[in-house]
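Late entry, evening session. Most of the bench is empty. Finally got around to the prediction I had been postponing all week. Sequence below, unchanged from the version circulated by S.P.
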Amino acid sequence: MNVGIEAINIFGGCSYIDARQLAAHRNLNRERVESLLVFQKSVPLPFEDPVTYAANAAKPIVESLSEKQRERIELLITCTESPIDFAKSISSYLQSYLNIPRSCRFFELKQACYGGTAGLQMATNFVLSQTSPGAKALVIATDISRTSQVANLERGSEESGYAEITAGGGAAALLIGDTPKVFQLDVGANGYYGYDITDTCRPAADVEVVNSDLSLLSYLDCCQQTFERYKERVSGADYSSTFRYLCFHAPFGGMVRGAHRAMMRRYSNFRPDEIEADFSRRVMPALNYCLRTGNAMTASIFISLAGLINSCHTSNPLRAACFSYGSGCCSEFFSGIIFPDSRATLARFEVESSLNARHQLSLEEYDDILSNREATSFGIKDCSIDSATYSNVIQRRARYPCLLLREISNFQRDYVWAHELSSD
């Protein structure tokens, strides 16, 4: 039985900041910043949160379905490490704002950046189980960075400045079913690996604790170990020749480059210059969108996959591998098939033009947003958002679905679609 991604869309927020300009503003080393391979990073505005990110990624997919197809969405999974409630899931908001049938099972998953892959695999097994033949699942990975300038300065470390450069956000929505037009999963071709480690964590609403060196070492270890377990299940699998392309969870492009180098040194006899050429040919195409969102956490691996599919001009099916990593830690190496029509299926959602429609923040606007971010963070009881302040930003997105956070009243978040707001 075939199973995989029938449709995929990503959302990179309504605004971004240029990474090089921010680095200069923070007086960071230019060469080191260039090695990070981050050009832009998404910055959530006051009317944006993980719910709006998720809705704006998923809405185009849901709207593309017929009423009969929409009624077959029987599983809705949100995956995030940026929750807005200890009990109520982001899925419960989305079920309403996306008009998903009430005869649908929905809930939320968490395992740092691996959460999106956990959701994908759970949805895949639901479809494969055939307990409800023909049913579909909607998986949405959504995250925003909660790193603030104030917290960075309080930590008093230059390292926190580089972490700020990479910390972005984004959402990816995936429709999973038995007619995978975009990415057909290799069923059973999975290698997973995990252990207890505290390389990163979020112990409070607006605090991210990162041990960069430990996280890098764990990421590299898991990349090797998951592939070793993949090989145990897929006889003859070879890292340097089995896969036409490779997608990685991308906290930043430089980390992906380092991981690929390490894997090629271990599993091939390539010279350093050949390894670099192989990175450009097989890995770099998947970083196209990641370079523009920064680290999108649970959504990162799927933003990589979407970037790869958008770059694929192929007349034959080809195999791509994906490495997903989440701090804490859990990881997985899996593979699937991209088809000649996969790019055209993705193109319906105009990902590139949606990213281009974002507002570029000035440094002053960026610092002002960071200093006021606590107003809508986790645990806020009451807050009213003046979206009129950002009317020019919202107008830039007039042709795309745009859900806005309108207010928080007694902890309950109220959202509105931008086109409905303009008609009030």
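Two things to note before I forget:
Residues 148-156 have pLDDT under 50 and may be disordered.
The longest strand covers residues 183-194.
Will write this up properly tomorrow.
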